Please model this.
Amino acid sequence: MTELVSTTPGLYPLPDWAKQDLSDLKGHQKHDLISGDEGPDIVSAYDRAREEVVSEQVDAGLDHIVEGQLRWDDMLAHPLTVHENVETGGIVRYYDNNNFYRDPQVRGELTFSGDVAAELDKTTDLLGDESLQAVLPGPYSLADLATDEHYGDEADFLDAIGEFLAGEVDAFPEHETLFLLEPSLVESPPGDDIDAQVPEAISAVADATDANVVVHTYWGSLEEKVYAHLMDADVDAIGFDFVAGDRDQTFYNINEYGTKDSIALGLVDGQNTLVEDPETVRERVEWTLDRVQNKTFDTAYVTSNTELFYLPENRATEKLSALAAATEEELEVEA
Amino acid sequence: MSRGVENREQFRPENHENEHFLLTTVVGSYPKPKWLNRANDLAEDPDSKFTQEHLHEAHDDACRVITNEHERSGLDTVVDGEMRREEMVEYFAHRIPGYEFNGPVKVWGHNYFDKPSVVGEVEYDEPWLVDEFEFTRDVASKPVKVPITGPYTLASWSFNEHYDSEAELAYALADLVNEEIEQLVEAGATYIQIDEPALATTPDDHAIVGECLERIVSGVPDDVRIGLHVCYGDYSRIYPELNDYPIDEFDVELCNGGYEQIDVFTDPEFEPDLALGVVDVHDAEVESVEEIKENIKQGLKVVPPEKLTISPDCGVKLLPREVAYQKMENMVTAAREVEAELDAGEIDLDAPVQSAD
Model:
């Protein structure tokens, strides 16, 4: 029997009051963005905002709770843009979106940072017996979003990012799952020179935790070869975008190369304000699982396809309830 | 096919001193006077006695001042600096039934915009810009250009909850833009600019923009000049396809990139008029007249003088106001000097830009 688990890939919109307060406290320019050593007023605003998005998830009934990544001004590039050996360059476009982040230029060794672990420690303090889900960029996407000015070689850089992320994970408090977000695998797929190395870098991060690890991909389907390599990664589940993706290609990949014992289903649109009702989400879960041949999963993570910060606060919150309600009942398995 | 109609001469000033005429214009937005920003804040403050009527008066005053500032700089066609608009999508979405607002979304850092959602069929209700056009026309002594956010950008920068595809939403909006232009033309507008910055980020959709433009210009008289403004894109991905757009003028920034892409437009032959950005709106240093003259000559590589319009790269609203003004004034001076040199036969149109060596 496939257990349904409702969750999200994190990176929530800031509550509207926090958008205003933090904008007043921090400013609007490039040099005003998060540094990793922000002062007490800013820390306290983020603490309040974190408390709010955590309670919203708990109230909605989500199975796995994320920190919300509200401090990640640079979205998935955040773990590097706050690093002491990284300088931030110009503002660059975030994939194909009308969003921008500071180009992280890696100028020295990627030593241990602890920035994300500190966020998760604070989240643990807010939780009772709910399950914490950690979120990080996958090593390929983080390398893809960054500029290497230190390691000199694409392969060495990818390895270094993998080791850096593994070091960060090692410092995390206890967590039930770790989502590694890898949109770059879809948006700028690795070439022949490096594609076999991607699963190794992902495994390096995954091996740093005892939690279940999900590599989540979005904004389309994976190229066949990229998927075949990804199956070599030592993870518990691969996540797929069934909203924006070419679904036929995704089903082809899964049915041709198999998939892991668990799966993540991106079924709720993280980039549209239209709120899916729970029945629709539920139908999509069943429809999708029906098309994966001969497979019962340990766990199917039911999630939005993308991060949620693209949405206004009210719609993001409503989507949480839809996800939670859709997974409330057990899945009926057709014999 | 570009529209292939002659409607440029109507903008030549009566007392124009040169035989050649390089039409000078602006893209639209202009820095707001500080007091107008204060007035906006006051109007939003429920404890203040500053009412919406007061704000309307402040907007009128700002439009008078900025239109006059454009005229003082010597421009042949002027805009009100978009004093009444805060944001290029929100402004129109507020006027189109079918849109709703749910709150701000992040663009970058702590910069947000009220990205609207299309929740039903979009419809034409009250005119969007006719009042502001009539106001500016009445205070201006020069012809007034009207910038309108294009349907493709209005569609791309909204959440689409209702239409089956973004293209369908864009086409529905294009029909509304067509209705609006009809109203503007009736009110006397002769120069309309469609702003499509979203095309630069998704150039593969150039055919959707083309179909939108066909709908927009349907029934528009030949003597109404239709421009298309796009900025900060990779133009090899939309050229030569843009030659098929039914427009009179293509307005593009290239100064910011040092005219690296100018040669993209030289082969095959460029069909519409070219409105070329000759001052950089992301650099607060004012270009000298000499420098701008060289930039203008870049445009002569693409089109002959009778098809060249001179413009800043984009809206100048992010510049300090005095810098914005000085850039316009130098731009006009440079255009007039190039015209005189053309009259005197001092510019070789086969090789307008002298090579570096």
About this structure: The first strand of chain B starts at residue 23 and ends at 24. The radius of gyration of chain B is 20 Å. The first helix of chain B runs from residue 34 to 44. Residues 9-32+129-343 of chain B form a domain with the TIM Barrel fold (CATH 3.20.20.210).
